[in-house]
Amino acid sequence: MEDDGVNFSVFSRHATGAELLLYEGADSEEPFQIIRLDPRVNRTFFSWHLLVVDLPPGTHYTWRMEGPNDPHIHGWRFDERIELVDPWARGVNVSAWDRWRRQREGVIDHDSPRGIVLAEEYNWEGDTPLRLASEQTIIYEVHVGGFTRHPNSGVRHPGTFLGLIEKIPYLKALGITHIELMPVMAFDEQDVPEAGWDAGLRNFWGYSTFGFFSPHPGYCVTPEQGTHRREFRDMVKALHRAGIGVILDVVFNHTSEGGGEGPALTFKGFGNETFYCLDGIDKGIYLDFTGCGNTVNANHPLVTHFILDALEYWVREMHVDGFRFDLASAMARDADGRPMANPPVLWEIELSDTLAASKIIAEAWDAAGLYQVGSFPGYRWMEWNGRYRDTIRRFVRGDTGLVPEVATRLSGSSDLYQANLRKPTNSINFVTCHDGFTLWDLVSYNRKHNLANCEGNRDGTNDNLSWNCGVEGETQEIEVLSLRQRQAKNLLSLLFLSQGIPMLLAGDEVLRTQKGNNNVWCQDNTLGWFDWSLVETNATMLRFVRGLIALRKRHPSLQRRHFLSGQSVSGSDLPDVTWHGEKIGEPNWDDPGNQVLAFTLGPANSDEAMLHVMVNMSSGARRFEIPSTDDLNWYLALDTARAAPTDLIEPSAQTLVESSALLVRSRSLMVLEGR
């Protein structure tokens, strides 16, 4: 909006005509005005634009573009019947949109999503994006809808940005520093396979974006009133007041328009040949490196500008603190799908002044086999470390021959990042995320159980690297349940004892289950929701995780900016790390059957207690020697083999270890604090 009206502008290089349709509100069946643009007055180079005076906030609008329809030769897909949503719309409404009616019956008048004219005023009350050092970051991956949609969540506005505000005390008590929100840009909830739609499923996760500047209307309480930005900003401001940063999971690798059979919502109708990667011979074929029907042509100059404009908008106007890029390696490809050594869009993001303080995180692979963990273009980019996940999962389930690699992963994955001058903070460490088993399912299932997704159990990965502890799925066997809890504690303990940035999946701290479904992308129901009754049911696990996070926070030696070297640092006479096995100084790197590892971390400053960690993933108890020093006493801080509350002990209640060796029980680990 401007002082004298609203300035509308869209990019469409090959359009020959344009109309702007204005609707009074969300439920208006017909536009109150259709404005035909004069190309001699309302077109400048590739942009169509006009100023509409005295247009009130809350007005809804769409575009219709005229032009050639020649998808196979030039990639043009203009259709003057289809109303398109403005790619730059700050708010969108989807009450008139019916994807499957469009697919089955064809274009129907006024059936498209609509942009909304929003008021600009907002009082940030001094709020700014947070600037927390990367090494201090602890990420909590959250689905906005699923976090509070369960009937037992106890919030006034379930499944919304405002509902999440009510859970801030829980987040603050947990101790995390940032929440990473699964997609919150406007997405098409109806983008599911036809069989799934007929079965009542919908696109729950949101990896089907079409409105890159608009908060998702489904997460707003009153989207029909154009409150998108206010509600989102209220959430960000409230989280910042609690000291919690906001990272957005963003999807710039594909859109909800799908392949050749998918509907035209936005880019297809404005500039299909510009915005998508198309086959070089038959431009009616979409190159699909994402598994979702299309691939955004991210390194076209205009598309790069669009992506950067969107990111900078979310930082500048919405105060977010960073971004996680879904299937980011797809953004490293050129228009023909070839990987680029220096993709312009990735370097523009890295070097943007506006994004200089923002966390930028890559899912460093795509669905067509491009895997760039450790080699993602750029230096500032952090990466979801899939190598870390796989190694730790295998080690904890009992695989042998992994001890040297486990030590490398615990040390920040120097093999991946050190040679090209990157840091431990380039590694986002995780053992679970939204994609795959939850933590409890990882220790309860050997196989995926995805029949509820209506795809014949074909969807989701088969390579889970999981172990069910002897029984598949639910059981009442006490020994099995006890082992599963211990394994869950082992996985999380290793995560929070590792150099790099830990990421925790929401619900893992209370052992949330998805009943063995490792791909609940379409399950907007109790299978995909956070069950708040587990906070009480599994209170001992919640206490354990809170204690783990507190342990990490009080030890700067777990938050180093540089890789462990085995040398003394920061003026200390002690090495930053010393590796052991059952015997001090003997880690047995070359033993292919080895399943034990111990290490001592020297203090990062004079006020810090030392740490000694003993890990035994074998099926039998092992006796570990303890380092002996004249001026240091060791105290037991953590033992995953113990039941609560002695599994994790606060410093004030810790007991002195008086022996020179400790028995570490099978499939467990112990942590000592020295002071």
Q: TL;DR?
A:
With 675 residues, this protein is of the alpha/beta class. The strands form 7 sheets. An 8-stranded parallel β-barrel has the order 11-12-15-16-17-18-19-20.
Written overview of the protein:
By secondary structure, the protein is an alpha/beta fold. The protein folds into two domains: 424 residues, TIM Barrel, CATH 3.20.20; 110 residues, Golgi alpha-mannosidase II (Immunoglobulin-like, Sandwich), CATH 2.60.40. It is 22% helix and 18% strand. The protein has 17 helices and 27 strands. The strands form seven sheets. The protein has an eight-stranded parallel beta barrel. β7 and β8 form a beta hairpin. α9 packs parallel to α10 and α11 crosses α12. The protein is elongated, with a radius of gyration of 27 Å.
